[in-house]
């Protein structure tokens, strides 16, 4: 066991400790190690070249912050057993385990009606079964899964994993800010954690930490529009969705086109996979666990030589970063405008108007900084009263804080190679 008490050097938070054997065994599971091969920010590296960090690093960082949060709460007299602490750390370690390559792209293309949250839970249950066998221990992750699903009797532990002020968000804001170089996303995670307390089984923040909460919310809004929903990143994602959608259409077409791809990607291209396949058949989950960024990028490079003009053109422009060009729209496209776009690309590329639909995309980007309907961020005053941050803040405007700004885009394939420099 002593050999499993590792220390990991993290570029954001410094030295992180693996406190016990169970957490080490979870980290060693192939499903968790797969996160090393999936970028945390998907295609954002096309805008911010430093954004090459993995979901594995994010999971480790979130686990570290969970450990710090538990230490801070214990110092305030909140009762958290060692078993509960380990379970909460495992729950946050595995919270992103179901993510596929390039964030949500697979949810729109290769699988039908399956979210990464669905797959995360299925993977956690599988890891629980595997560890039960290897450790000869019944349900070693039962408590972690209960906390993750908000079925454990201490609700505040779930809030640390999933709420509007959770350790997941604290880590990704700090980590993504560090690797992109966007300093606006840096938040005072250490101070926020030290200001946490629990009242009536809910997380609260001591009033002296209110400014750190305000900074956290502002940082989140800025990071969404500056990084996560950056127009070029979204354009690249929309183009990738079109590429995979076309590949799947060819794979499942009547001519049974044989596309170059890894066995894992082949499984999802050539089969109609739904949630039932994941829930009933172990093959779907095992195949998914072998799917990562490398499968998709390797296939797209090969598809440049595809005999299909649509797949070839989209793949070539994607690999060479001649990405879709984005235009802001004031209102939705009309049917006449959509037909005109199809005619434009059909004539320019000598393809059918039906195939031309892959060369443009209409998309809405939206972000939500704070929601009154979700778990609120509660501020604890010295007299014991508790108020929602939207009411307590003297800086943040309630209407602006809860508003969901949206941007509607038209993303178009660049017909002129010189447009790549614009």
Describe what this molecule looks like in 3D:
The protein is α+β, with helices and mostly antiparallel strands. It has two domains: 2-228 and 381-404, Hypothetical protein af1432 (Orthogonal Bundle), CATH 1.10.3210.10; 231-271 and 290-365 and 409-421, Growth Hormone, Chain: A (Up-down Bundle). 50% of the residues lie in helices and 11% in strands. The protein has helices at 21-28, 30-33, 55-75, 82-93, 116-135, 142-148, 155-161, 167-180, 189-194, 210-228, 231-251, 263-269, 275-280, 282-289, 293-303, 309-319, 335-349, 353-356, 389-392, 398-402, and strands at residues 7-10, 14-17, 111-112, 196-199, 202-206, 273-274, 325-329, 360-366, 378-380, 386-388, 406-412. The strands form four sheets. The chain has a four-stranded mixed β-sheet with strand order 4-5-9-10. The longest helix is centred in the N-terminal third of the chain and has 21 residues, at 55-75. The relative contact order is 0.11. Residues 418-422 have low confidence and may be disordered.
